[in-house]
Amino acid sequence: MREWRTGWIAGLTRLARHLDERRAAAEREEEELEQAEEAVYGARRPAGGPPAPGGAAAAPAPGGTAPTVPAPPGYAPAVPARPEPAGAVPWGMRVAAEVGWRLLVLAATVWVLMKVISSITLVVLAFAAALLLTALLQPTVAWLRRAGVPRGLATAITFIAGLAGVGLAGWFVVWQVVENADNFSSSLQGGIAELKRWLLNSPFHVTEAQINNIADNLSEAVGTNTEQLTSAGLAGVTAVVEFLSGMLLAAFSTLFLLYDGRRIWHWVLKLFPAAARAGLSGAGPRAWRTLTSYVRGTVVIALIDAIFIGTGIWLLGVPLAVPLAVIIFLGSFVPLVGAVVSGALAVVVALVTDGPFLALMVLAVVLGVQQIEGHVLQPLILGRAVKVHPLGVVLAVTTGSMVAGIGGAVVAVPVVAVTNTVVGYLRRYSEETRLRAAGPDVHGPGPHGATGIEASDWARPGTGPGKPPAGA
């Protein structure tokens, strides 16, 4: 037992001596490695301390000793940092993206606006008609005010006179249609017979059987689609009710705009930020002058078209000359398109009542008056008020008719003209404000004329945001 214990103790002693030798050897190897690093890099990194210059940080080895991975040499190439993602995108693509998302936001805004307008088309068109009527009647109110008539009485006189004029015109048209209905019916029957004879003798080689077949097909189509025609009639009744409602709303809006238009405008200005009121208060009167000039010029041109074309078709003996002249007058409120369409109606009436020759004569009268309007009247009367290219006018009329029908076509051009005036004034106002802030040495004397800052009511001395001009 004693011998076994003595042998076990001797074995443990030899194992401990062996472990001490291994530990001493490891320490010698580590010391030699550190000496080699010091000889190569000229600096020794203490155990657990910061890395040597130019080296990479590493976690200390277990036991608190320094890692055995040497730091990179000083002549190693530097690795460039990765650029920012936005900097890696080409400049042109970044500009296109910036423009693109702004266009998307603008398109979404316009789409939402169109949806809102289409849902309240009656209200929008009635208010637009009220603005046009106010622009037409407001000079009369101003003239009566200058003559010493009180504002309420001047508004009432102008409004009642305007309603009376519209009512008399409508009554006159209905009276003329009723008075000439019998003559028109006989003329229509005779015209259809004349048209039939002309087709039979024309070089188109139309036979009487073909004409009778067309008449039978028309009669059959009318009989087959009776339900659709009835539905269309009910829709027409609904349209008449909506039209009367719109007229009533437009009349009330016109009355209040004539009486209290200035206060309404100042209330609208207060809805905008204070910094924007000075520019808008200058753009508003200019937009109103543009609208007033447009309405006056359009009325004058429509009267000239109606008088000359109506006189021409009356001298040629076309039935319903006076109602056709009134339709031409109303159609002329749609620039470049309305007078042509209403004139085409006169040509059709002449064709079915008096034959192709008279229709060609009426067409010559309509085209002649249209040429005078396009080359003389439009530039002379509306040239200064509506500074819009004819292509812009056609596109505006087409867009307005697609959005809101005939009413949209009527108000499209004045909307474009007013927008053009407002945008042009605000651009000049912003530029002159910037130059004024830069100092008089930059651009010489301060703003002057129609685009000067002092032309704005809200920029005059003693006024400011939230303070209407004197006499408002």
UniProtKB/TrEMBL annotation:
Main subcellular location of this protein, as a coarse class: membrane
Cellular localization per UniProt: Cell membrane
UniProt-listed Pfam families: AI-2E_transport
Acidic residues bias locations: 28-37
Taxonomic superkingdom: Bacteria
Transmembrane annotation, as ranges: 123-144, 156-178, 234-259, 294-316, 322-351, 358-382, 402-426
Protein known as: AI-2E family transporter
Region (Disordered): 23-69, 437-472
PANTHER family reported for this sequence: PERMEASE PERM-RELATED, TRANSMEMBRANE PROTEIN
Coiled coil: none
Record's compositionally biased regions (Low complexity): 38-47, 54-68
Lineage: Bacteria, Bacillati, Actinomycetota, Actinomycetes, Kitasatosporales
Family the entry assigns: Belongs to the autoinducer-2 exporter (AI-2E) (TC 2.A.86) family.
Membrane topology, record value: Multi-pass membrane protein
UniProtKB keywords: Cell membrane, Membrane, Transmembrane, Transmembrane helix, Transport
